[in-house]
Amino acid sequence: MEAVQTEKGQISIHTENIFPIIKKFLYSDHEIFLRELVSNAVDATQKLKKLASFGEVNSEIGDDLKVTVTVDEEGKSITISDSGIGMTADEIKKYINQIAFSGASEFLEKYKDKVDDKGAIIGHFGLGFYSAFMVAEQVEIVTRSYKEGAEAARWVCDGSTEFEISAAERAERGTDVILHIALDSEEFLNKARIRSILEKYGRFLPVPIEFDGEIINDATPIWTKAPADLTDEDYKKFYRELYPMSEEPLFWIHLNVDYPFNLTGVLYFPKLKNDFHVKREKIQLYSRQVFITDEVKDIVPDFLMLLHGVIDSPDIPLNVSRSFLQADSNVKKINGYITRKVADKLTELFKADRKAFEEKFDDIGLFIKYGIISDEKFNDKAKEFALLKNTEGKFYTFDEYREHVQANQTDKNDAAIWLYSTDQKAQHGYIESATRRGYDVLVLDTVIDPHFINHLEYKLEKTSLKRVDADTLDKLIDKGLANQSVLSEADQTKLKELFETVLDNKSLNVSVEAMPADEMPVTITLPEFMRRMKDMSQLSGEQSFYGVMPITYNLVVNANHPLADRVLKQGDEAGQKQLVKQLYDLALLSQNMLTGADLTAFVKRTVETL
């Protein structure tokens, strides 16, 4: 080959201001330079391996192919070295000086019949090499091509459009990229800073990365392996590496698809309990094992953001300026595929071992309900495995539960009434009353349940959900059967007026009704509609119209309870008022609404009457 001739020239670009643009606008985060340059070095190494496999490399390539990053704090430089394919002087002119030309693209085009998707090249970060000028006042390349007889060449540029190519001393094949760090970027001469960047972006690069005498990456992470070759402990170990402070995952899904797009990865189901506001940036996006971002909201459906894990795809388009995802057809296909895989996994677990699935449901129920509400395709599949739990701890599918309560909880309009509790302890008395009637009560106490309840009513035919303490049971499940009152109409009117006068509270809607004698003497309820609006405004964290409007409670006096007759027959007016107040406070206490001075007064009155 010809000897390298010293040459100076102008870089072929369309504007003199390319470098300021690179520095200020092309990359918002300057640390990206290291990702780009290390990725290029990995790219060069993988190209060499491919060429060797095609029989196009005449010398031994060796087993110890790696990329080395070196920081010279005194000399104020960073060097990224590889022993990949290297470049000739002509290739430097072609690939480095002509910014718009992609070496990786040409390579893939040349070998497109021999390179499959699995072994594809990383190099689709476009102007990656020039990100070096974000942190360097001068950049050198010292390189030697793998081609037989090739001579080493040196390229140097100070960030202007001028460059120089000359002969260099390099005995071995490969490339050194040497960054002479600018004054305003000396933070990158800190070894701990460089290590953290390498661990962030290069933790799973497919070629060993050496820094400060150590290999800092796992070149064959579990998502690159076949599921058949992995044990449960392998998956758990990888999860601990990703999330060292987290509890053990419940289960996981290994993603692996070649068509119509390329996607691999592992998604884990964490223990969510009732924490809907859990940190969501837990899914990491990679492109051929290069970390891109943990902002995956465009590629992963919102409800799946609660999962943890890794997704790797070369088919996800990247905006080179900020590595943000763009919504194109591939992204939408990947989104749908992940949703389907998650639903299939849950169906499989449910059918394989229902008991084990039920034991996990308190941890995954929040996730499943969120998916049902927010994703129609997931909702269609979730009908098979979504469960409802009652106050006895028994689980039912939607169809099973309908059958379970149909006979006893159908109202006069032939609608099924599903009773529910949001707090078993606070609503214990109401649950007990319902149970005495043979009614079943569901537990819907997660933060997302107000929305889930609305969704169920929308999707299920002739079904209403009512909170067990939202009204008297005869009104909650109105079967059209009226209880007979032991009080005359005149006494009922007198009792109603007495409670209104003594309590003198405009936010109370007082009524007297014939109820079973074993029910509470006085019941205070907030209508179902108002309760839901209040719960939903609390979940959103914003005050809705219903969250700020005055609340009116229903106060129902049980005409058939012995204490109602006792109030009427109380001869002493002061004693009558005290009994009314005591019964009202009991109703408040049963709803956890008696607090402060009112609670203290109630306790004092109770002690005095004992």
From TrEMBL:
SMART domains listed in its UniProt record: HATPase_c
Coiled coil feature spans: none
Stretches assigned to the Histidine kinase/HSP90-like ATPase domain: 29-171
Binding positions (ATP): 36, 40, 82, 87, 102-103, 175, 322
Keywords recorded for this protein, A-Z: ATP-binding, Chaperone, Cytoplasm, Nucleotide-binding, Stress response
UniProt GO MF annotations: ATP binding; ATP hydrolysis activity; ATP-dependent protein folding chaperone; unfolded protein binding
PROSITE patterns attached to this UniProt entry: HSP90
Family: Belongs to the heat shock protein 90 family.
The protein's name in its UniProt record: Chaperone protein HtpG
